[in-house]
Specification:
By secondary structure, the chain is of the alpha/beta class. It is 36% helix and 21% strand. The protein contains 14 helices and 17 strands. Strands 1, 2, 3, 4, 5, 14, 15, 16 and 17 form a 9-stranded mixed sheet that branches. A 4-stranded parallel sheet has the order 6-7-8-9. Helix 11 (335-345) crosses helix 12 (357-371). The longest helix is centred in the C-terminal third of the chain and has 21 residues, at 438-458. The mean pLDDT is 96.
Length: 459
């Protein structure tokens, strides 16, 4: 699309999620090229030139596209397993299977994960991939290629593990990389794929997996590598009480203090889960600007606990939402996390004051943009920002008696996505992907799941 061609969306409610939470009960939005050109109350000006399309969005709410800040795409082909396990037992049960993945499996799993998110309103996805069996192909390239073909904005967190069972970690010995191999491969991935431009569709972060699967040396040297290359850092942190015990026994300190000792707190860092955080931990994250990917469904699925999200937000910690891997959140959808974040946090000590509908929407949009370091580009609807946005259909039976559209979106049933735009390009129409064959993806993921199960059983 030429930079000056326009798409006009009008007759809709708009939640901009800007700094003032500006909303329009009946408004319009104009896309020019890949940017939001203008938006406001009422219909768009009739004298706009170079308009390719005018979309009558009556009955819809327009929001920024959802931003997923933590995922493991490869787990799409191991869904529904170890359903009654806590985190450590779940990992031990599944690592031997995961260590048999190869490039076709990873590509199919990435397509399944991305398709499920994109058709449900996600415009920016991320994948924390940390399992790299030797001789199984270009796994990072397969994941990035799937996101590129789907048309979704994407961050690959190039993960790694070098602490196996023989070193006191959880992964089997054959499932890890060497320290040198992990660092070299991570640097190559950044140099080959990371795009630092304003409208980048692909970025890369340095992402050693977790304290119980990564050596202290890999954490320290990974942090140095990321900062030398000018990219962000991601890992798992403070997910379970078992992890807290592991860190105290092995390092003589809790996870947050351990991460700080290895250079892993800062504005360029975000961590997944952060369920078991005390006041001192939250203060350290706020002081350093370290971000959090909150994954309420996965935390519940693995009985990890309730993260202190209201306290984090009050302290000023950047917080976004994450699906987490689909082996611990089988739905694979981020829009359901808006509702689950609100409901789960109301089970905590703040009860009904924990989160409201607009705070939940902010977590899934602007909060995610902050966590990924892209709040200047995405996460809210403002002139000059990238045109990543979603049209949610709210005039059906499911939401018919809910007057407030943001309340309908967050508290109500999952709303159909009539249209989703990424970088000004429409990728979803009436709940179906325009950029991929969903039925073919379903067939491929079923086939690769069966193949992986056969290989794991044989070995």
């Amino acid at each position: 699309m030429a930079a000056d061609r326009r798409i006009v969306i009008e007759n809709c409610a708009i939640a901009t999620v800007d700094a003032h939470d500006t909303e329009y009960a009946d408004g319009h939005l104009v896309i020019a090229g890949n940017r939001v050109e203008s938006l406001g109350a009422g219909r768009a000006p009739e004298d706009l030139t170079d308009v390719d399309r005018r979309i009558d969005a009556t009955g819809h709410l327009v929001t920024p596209g959802l931003i997923n800040t933590h995922h493991h795409f490869y787990q799409w082909i191991t869904r529904g397993l170890a359903t009654d396990h806590n985190l450590f037992d779940w990992l031990v049960a599944l690592y031997p299977t995961w260590a048999r993945i190869d490039e076709p499996m990873v590509r199919a799993a990435a397509e399944g994960s991305l398709a499920m998110m994109a058709r449900g309103g996600v415009t920016t996805a991320m994948d924390h991939h940390y399992v790299f069996p030797r001789g199984t192909g270009d796994l990072s390239g397969a994941i990035i290629g799937a996101a590129r073909d789907m048309g979704v904005r994407f961050t690959l967190a190039r993960g790694s593990m070098d602490r196996s069972e023989k070193d006191g970690g959880l992964p089997p010995d054959f499932a890890v990389e060497t320290l040198e191999g992990a660092l070299t491969a991570t640097e190559e991935t950044v140099r080959q794929h990371h795009d630092a431009s304003f409208d980048a569709m692909t970025q890369v972060a340095v992402a050693p997996c977790s304290p119980f699967s990564v050596s202290t040396e890999l954490l320290r040297e990974g942090a140095g590598l990321a900062r030398r290359l000018g990219v962000r850092l991601h890992t798992h942190g403070s997910e379970t009480v078992e992890e807290e015990k592991f860190c105290h026994e092995l390092f003589g300190m809790g996870p947050t203090d351990y991460f700080e000792s290895t250079g892993w707190l800062g504005e360029d860092v975000w961590m997944a889960h952060c369920v078991h955080m005390n006041d001192s931990d939250i203060a350290a994250f706020a002081r350093t600007g370290t971000g959090v990917a909150h994954c309420p469904s996965s935390n519940a699925r693995l009985a990890a606990g309730i993260a202190r999200v209201p306290d984090m937000l009050t302290a000023g910690v950047p917080v976004g939402l994450g699906v987490d891997g689909t082996a611990s959140n089988e739905s694979g959808e981020l829009h359901t996390e808006l509702r689950n974040a609100l409901l789960v946090n109301r089970l905590g000590p703040h009860r009904e004051a924990a989160l409201n509908a607009r705070q939940a929407l902010r977590l899934g949009t602007h909060g995610g943009a902050r966590v990924l370091g892209r709040a200047a580009e995405i996460g809210s609807l403002e002139p000059g920002k990238l045109a990543d946005l979603v049209l949610w259909k709210l005039d059906t039976l499911a939401h018919a008696s809910i007057a407030d559209p943001v309340t309908a979106l967050v508290f109500g049933a999952a709303a159909p996505v009539t249209a989703s735009f990424v970088n000004g390009r429409q990728i979803v129409q009436d709940g179906r992907l325009l950029t991929a064959d969903e039925d073919a993806i379903a067939r491929a993921t079923r086939a690769e799941a069966r193949r992986l199960a056969r290989i794991a059983a044989r070995d």
